[in-house]
Amino acid sequence: MIGRFFHTPAAKKFHVNPRFYDPDKDERDERERRIKDELGIKGKKSEGGKPFRPNVRGQFRQAQEGFVRSSEKGRRASNTRLIFLILILTLIFYLFFYSDFSF
Known about the structure:
Layout: H1 2-5, H2 23-39, H3 59-98
Keywords: Membrane, Transmembrane, Transmembrane helix
């Protein structure tokens, strides 16, 4: 029981799997690409007969539209609350200092 009272847990171990980078393979791939471009050899083709070209242009902005709209709604609600709070505090200040009520 006393031994368990002073027990400190073991440190968590951090393990990273190393990645292998082969600069020779990158040079070889780049050389093959240049040679194919010079000889006019087309690369891999997709099912439609045309090479694959990702349609990325504008997708980030389209994905963020929903986020922007929700943040604008939150900003409007926050501004409305702030204005309402300022009006209430102004009314309390007026009643406290400029009226005949005494507390």
